[in-house]
Amino acid sequence: MKAFKILRPQGAATVVSGLVLSFGVAQAAPFLYAPGDLVLSFRQVGGASDYVVNIGKAAYFSTLAAGATITISNLSVAQLNSAFPTLNGLQWSVAGANRPPLAPGFPLQTIWVVAPRLDPAVRSSGWLRKGQYVQGTAAGQIDAIGFNAATASSTLTAGPDNTATGVVIPTTTAYALSPVLGDAGNYAGTFQGNVESATAVDFDASAGNLSRADLYELIPGLAADGTANTPGRYLGYFELKPDGLLTFNTGISLPPAPSITAIAYDQNVATVSFTTSGTGNYSLRASNALGAPVSSWPVVSGPVAGTGALVSLQDTNAASARFYAVEVQP
Known about the structure:
By secondary structure, the chain is mainly beta.
């Protein structure tokens, strides 16, 4: 979702609390789960059942092209309706964690997790990347949802509500979502905020109602210049409709990649000029060293709207050796 131009001057485990040290693939019949899978979770206050769905590898969602829209076909409307008498006031979230065995290409304790939109038309502010140890605690909770679902599946009779991709779990069992997610939806206090979206109390009343949640990729660790708590990478948004249809949309196509045309220094201030199109919002990222992904570099200025002409942004803390990237988002 971003374009840059860079220039230098084993088995399932029974879990009650949610925390689990798990390795391998959970193959409890019939629901299947492995670390690195994205798991979709539904619950309802006072409900008799929770519903967990494996929607595929997180790495797949990480590499989708801009402008793509896919239907989450593993979500079964029949299972959803069996688990809940109504979709009004439904709490739902999506998350995955890179735990052993690791998904290639991503560091240990990478987290993929949604942030709810308070207004379906306004993108959430997102989540911050944390250190590996901090993210590892939340990653254990996320991983527990998948392994708990597989273990619950092995105790239930196979049938329409217990399949390889989805399982309806009675809330009276030890495998319910509440001990893992906690009352506040922050993985029992191990994560930085509430990950659950809530459908409206009259969600079923109109086919035009929407519930959206933004998906972020949180690679653990510091930025290349040592900066902590940098923003996660935005991947796109999930959209739930009253008929039970869930889609994932990576957003509109990006404007053309900007080109840095000049960098001017005046004492400790660097002014970076670059090309823009008539659409898009542009931010200046900076780092004192190469090596880390550009998306992890801190934003030092912006965003500013494109005009179709040259635009400049300033770094007021310019070092003698500094790398710059201009990022554009829709």
